[in-house]
Structures are given as structure tokens and as C-alpha cells.
Design brief:
The chain is mostly helical and 331 residues long. It contains 13 helices and seven strands. Strand 4, helix 8 and strand 5 form a beta-alpha-beta unit. The structure holds tryptophanyl-5'AMP (TYM).
């Protein structure tokens, strides 16, 4: 296939908190798997991270950490443009243009905003947190991306992105590609290990709730051992057994084996053996990523240079698309 004719892919991860196995199974792993088939833009969405308070030094460190994890997981800078959102000002500029057509009501209905403001209320939430999905729409539309590989929690944001693209095209003439989400069957919604009714989250204050991509093997084993289970001993996925369903989903996404096959293998066997094998399967996948990431972090200059090369390319590709949107709006 000619490079020019490949469909474009865009996705990103926020450099906040600790990247976890949900980010890996729901997003990163799939990016690596498809990188040969598409023209890829993988962004470190540092502007999105600013929608909640960040320690500047820590943010700087996290940005490099995410870059190292992208590479360690197998993204190849020869085949993917890897860059930081804040180094491409067009993201914030297009966000502002789209703010003119996004509606207050639409943004008020975003479940992520509702979830994130449930505890403290909306009064003290930043305007950025509310506007977050518009910046995300700008990220995607700025590259005319056709496909956006994400976890299930981003489905509603993708739907809004599609709505904004269609609305803009309708109001001002054909400008943006309407993108499609790409969400896998397994691993798209990994739940917290200590509470299977809650999504596994980077910003959780409870380290036992997630497996970090950079966790040491023994920490992974300990966390899996302590993961909550349901009543009964049967290893079978079902709506009444959210904890074991989650562990089976993680096992399936980690190994590529169907859930039914894993259920068959553990029929009549206890949780102990299942958890032990699951932990080893996770260690086998994450340990090499961890080791490579730590080695890459020894060369922060190299990571910075790689991100800057990516940003140059991203600026070049996005410039005419922003210019076209500006011109259509009368700027
Ligand atoms: P973020 O940084 O929260 O998560 C990054 C990616 O990981 C997926 N993910 C999960 N998948 C399965 N189980 C989980 N528990 C889990 N938690 C997170 C997310 O779905 C995502 O794919 N708004 C985005 C970042 C973003 C973006 C974009 C993504 C900004 N602009 C443009 C795609 C395209 C976010 O906060 O993801």
C-alpha cells in the first residue's frame, strides 16, 4: 500500500498519574498492532493534563515517561509521528474555533465530566475540565484522522467529535473527516482490582486498584493476589460476577485467548491457581515494556529530540487543515 493512501489514525494519552494495564490493553497495545497499516499520529496530550492541577516538575517528568512507554511498548518512530500536544499550537487554536459551535448542553452531558465532578461539585471544576472534549475533538479533526483507537470510556467523546465535525461541515462546507472510534472487544474497559464497579484509573489514590505498566513483577503478583473476587468459586464471566469477569477480560486481552477457552481451562479449579497464572501472564507482557522504558528514560535528551521531530511533522501536517477551517469561518 502506498504510504499516502493509508488511512490516518490519531490517538493520545494524558501524561498524568501512572499509566496502567487498562491504558495498555485498551489503547497502546492496539496502536502497536495496527501501526503498519495506517499513517499514525500518537500524541502525549499534555494540555489535557492541565485541566486538573499538576506539579510542573512532575508533569515534565511524566511527559518523558509516557514517551518512553510509547516506544517501549513497541511504537516505531519510523512509522508513527510521536509528539506532545502543547508543541503544536494548532490544537488549542482549533479548539477555540470548535468552541464556537459546541453547545453547553452537550458538554454538560459528558459522563466523564459528571464523574470527575461528582465528589467536589461543578462549582470549583476548571473551565478546562468542562471544555476538555472540545480540545479532544480538535486533536482528532486537525489531522483528518479516520480512525481513533481508544478504550470504551472515550466512546462518548468520540461521538461528540463526530457531531462537531458534521456540524462544522454543514455550517461552513466540507472541511473535516468524520472519524470512527476503534474499540476492541476485550480490554476496552478494565475495572479497578479492588472495586470491579469502578473503572481502573490513572488518578486513583489507591495503588492496589491498578497495575502500573512500570510496576515491578512482585508488585504485579501481589496486586493480582489481592484483587477482590466474587462469592462462589466458579471462574466464569457473568454480570453477577463483576470481579472475576474483569480478571477474565484482563487475562483474555493480555494473552489474546478467548474468555471461553480460559473458563474451560480453569473449570473446577480454584481462584488461587487462576490468579497465579494471570499474574505471570501480565508479568510476561509488562516486564519487557518496563525494562525498555527504564532504559530509555536514561536518555532524556534523546526522548526530547524525538518528541520535537514528531512535533515538526505534526505542525506541518495540521497547518493547512487549521488554515482551511479558519478561512471557512471568515478569519
Ligand atoms: P486517558 O489518558 O485517560 O487514557 C488513555 C487511553 O487509555 C484508555 N483507557 C482505558 N482502557 C481500558 N480500560 C481502562 N480502565 C482505561 N482507562 C483508560 C482510554 O480510553 C484511552 O484510549 N481523553 C483521552 C485522551 C485524548 C485522546 C485525544 C484520545 C485526548 N485527545 C484524541 C484519542 C484521541 C484520555 O483522557 O485518555
Amino acid at each position: 500500500m502506498e504510504r499516502e493512501r493509508r488511512a490516518r489514525v490519531f490517538s493520545g494519552i494524558q501524561p498524568s498519574g501512572n499509566l496502567h494495564i487498562g491504558n495498555y490493553l485498551g489503547a497502546l497495545k492496539n496502536w502497536v498492532a495496527i501501526q503498519d497499516d495506517y499513517e499514525n499520529y500518537f500524541c502525549i496530550v499534555d494540555l489535557h493534563a492541565l485541566t486538573v492541577p499538576q506539579d510542573p516538575k512532575e508533569l515534565r517528568r511524566k511527559i518523558r515517561e509516557v514517551a518512553a512507554i510509547y516506544l517501549a511498548a513497541g511504537l516505531d518512530p519510523g512509522r508513527c509521528v510521536i509528539f506532545r500536544q502543547s508543541r503544536v499550537p494548532a490544537h488549542a487554536e482549533l479548539c477555540w474555533l470548535l468552541n464556537g459551535i459546541a453547545r453547553f448542553g452537550e458538554l454538560s452531558r459528558m459522563t466523564q465530566f459528571k464523574d470527575k465532578t461528582r465528589k467536589e461539585g461543578t462549582e470549583s471544576a476548571s473551565a478546562g475540565l468542562f471544555d476538555y472534549p472540545v480540545l479532544m475533538a480538535a486533536d482528532i479533526l486537525l489531522y483528518n484522522a479516520q480512525l481513533v483507537p481508544v478504550g470504551d470510556d472515550q466512546r462518548q467523546h468520540l461521538e461528540l467529535t463526530r457531531t462537531l465535525a458534521r456540524r462544522f461541515n454543514h455550517l461552513y462546507g466540507e472541511t473535516f473527516v468524520v472519524p470512527e472510534p476503534m474499540i476492541m472487544k476485550s480490554g476496552a474497559r478494565v475495572m479497578a482490582l479492588d472495586d470491579p464497579t469502578e473503572k481502573m484509573s490513572k488518578s486513583s489514590p489507591r495503588p492496589g486498584s491498578y497495575i502500573s505498566i512500570l510496576d515491578e513483577p512482585d508488585a504485579i503478583r501481589r496486586k493480582v493476589r489481592r484483587a477482590v473476587t466474587d462469592s462462589g468459586t466458579e471462574i466464569k464471566a457473568s454480570p453477577e460476577k463483576p470481579a472475576i469477569t474483569n480478571l477474565l477480560d484482563i487475562y483474555s486481552a493480555t494473552t489474546g485467548r478467548p474468555v471461553e477457552e480460559i473458563e474451560d481451562e480453569y473449570r473446577g479449579r480454584g481462584y488461587g491457581q487462576f490468579k497465579q497464572d494471570l499474574a505471570e501472564a501480565i508479568v510476561e507482557v509488562l516486564s519487557p515494556v518496563r525494562e525498555r522504558a527504564l532504559a530509555l528514560l536514561d536518555d532524556p535528551r534523546g526522548l526530547d529530540e524525538l518528541l520535537e521531530r514528531g512535533a515538526e511533522k505534526a505542525r506541518e501536517v495540521s497547518r493547512p487543515i487549521l488554515a482551511s477551517a479558519q478561512a471557512k469561518m471568515g478569519l
